[in-house]
Each structure stands twice: as C-alpha cells, then as structure tokens.
Amino acid sequence: MPPRVAIVGSTASGKSAVAMAVAERMHDVDLVSIDSMQVYRGMDIGTAKPTADEQRRVRHHCIDLVDASEEFTVAEFKPQVESALRSIAAADRRALLVGGTGLYHRVVIDDFDLPGQYPDVRADLEQESSTEALHARLAELDPPAAAKMEPGNRRRVVRALEVTIGSGRAFSSFGPGVDAYPPTPVAQIAIRRPREVIAARVEQRVHRMIAAGLVDEVASLYDAGMSRTALQALGYKEIVSAIRGEIDQDEAIDMIITRTRQFAVRQERWFRRDPRVRWIDVEHDPVAEVAPVVIAALEESTV
C-alpha cells in the first residue's frame, strides 16, 4: 500500500470539513474514518457520521461496519482498515485517514501487533475486587508492563493480565506500545484551534445534534439493545442515563457538553505527544488554512 496522509486533532476542530474539501478537489481520494464509534450502524447523529449526501459525493470507508448491539474492538478494526486500504490502492486511488480516536489511529499508522481477546480469563480476573492485588499479580508475571501502569488503572491492569495469562505471552512483548514513535510513512497533519473556540464549537454541535433528533436515535438503539462498547460513546451514554431515569434530559445535555470538551482536551494531548505530527494553528477557516497543506502532502506521497 502507498504512503498515506492523516488528518488528526480534537473533536469539533474541523477535520471532516477539511477532508471533504480535499477529496472533492482532488477527485481520486477516498476518506478512511479512524473513529471507534462511527463503525456502528445507526449511530449517526451523535458520532457526526458523514451524511448520506457526503457519502454519495465522496467514497468513505470504515463506517457502518457492525450493528450497535455488537461488541467491537480495535483488534477487529485493524483488518477492516487494512482491507479498505488495499481496495483503495487496487483502484489506483489515494487514501486520506481522518479521525480522532488516538489508539485506532496508532494501530493503523504504526501497524501494532495486537493481542487477542480472552473473555473467560477476563471474567475470572474481574472476580477480584482489588485492583491493587491485580496489579501486584501483573508485577509478578510481567514486570515491564506493570511498571508502565498506575496500580489503580483497573481497565489497563485487567487487560494486561488477560493477555498475559490467556496467550501465555507477556503483554509487554507485543511491542513498545503507544509511548514509542517509530518512523512512519504516514504524514500526520493536526488541526489545532484555541480551546475556547473548541469549547464553543462543542456546545453548538451538541445542541445541533439534539435538534437533529439525537434523543430519538439513542432511544431506538437502546430499545434494540446496545453493546458495552457502543454504550461508551459520548452523547449516547448520557442520553441512556436519562432514558433510565437516572438524570433528566437537561442534565444529560450539560454532561454531554462538559464531557465532550474534556475529551477534546485529551485528544489534543494524545496527538501532541507524538513528535511526528505536524500542527497547523487555525485562525479562521480550517478548510482554507489546512486543505492546501493536506493536498500538498498527498501529492508528495505519490512522488
């Protein structure tokens, strides 16, 4: 597969608008979504998924892969995106990666060696209530992995133990992880805007989603059954809490805005740690200011 280009950055920064503009100007570019929640069919409004019209105008890949009732992980995403990239290359077209899910992005550009899933082992580990005890067990089985994790980070500790026990291979042996930044053929272009601008855009976006029918979308999906992974989506889990009567709808909307703003800050920090990323500080219009940079990178990638 040829070298590729990626547009990254926080939510509400303008990545999708830039990607659409680039694809429509170049005519031989397909967009590949690197988003952990756009993979779910029916989760359209709350994930800011490309509209039907946008999908008619530009070819999109790696959206609507599974029903919202199904579990889906980064390990399952990797072969899907690899297949998409092969098909794009076979059609003599260029791929533009776009999205803000940091781990999914790294798995694609750095070709991570991903460990499998061992649900029986995980279920057994979850019986232990003390995360510190689990961390101590990990320290015995895989000291390098334990040294990189906070003893109280239950999700990471359980996952490392699950892999170590289930595969018979130390979790740390699957590669250097997200803290290493090896050379990559993918040009990463990040959109950066002032945090107060992102905060305002997030609030506007959430209110647009509510007006567009987000509550009804979530209610329909919830009635049909949503998987554990789908229920982690911002906007969806808060509306589900309102549906369950745990909070009222106004509280849910406020929580969506607050949590999305916090998520945007975490996204920027994630990409900021990567020294390979080229940052573009946008003053006014991300399309006008970033699209030419992306186009130039795509043209250079085919030289």
TrEMBL record:
UniProt superkingdom? Bacteria
One GO BP annotation is: tRNA modification
Which cofactors does the annotated protein need, by name?
Answer: Mg(2+)
Q: Name one GO molecular function term.
A: tRNA dimethylallyltransferase activity
Question: Can you tell me which residues bind ATP?
Answer: 9-16
User: What InterPro entries does this protein's entry cite?
Assistant: Dimethylallyltransferase (IPR039657), IPT (IPR018022), P-loop_NTPase (IPR027417)
Q: Which stretches does the entry tag as region Interaction with substrate tRNA?
A: 35-38
NCBIfam families, alphabetized: miaA
- Quaternary structure and interacting proteins, as annotated: Monomer.
Name-wise, this protein is: tRNA dimethylallyltransferase
| Organism this protein belongs to | Ilumatobacter coccineus (strain NBRC 103263 / KCTC 29153 / YM16-304)
Taxonomy-wise, where does this protein's organism fall, top ranks first? Bacteria, Bacillati, Actinomycetota, Acidimicrobiia, Acidimicrobiales
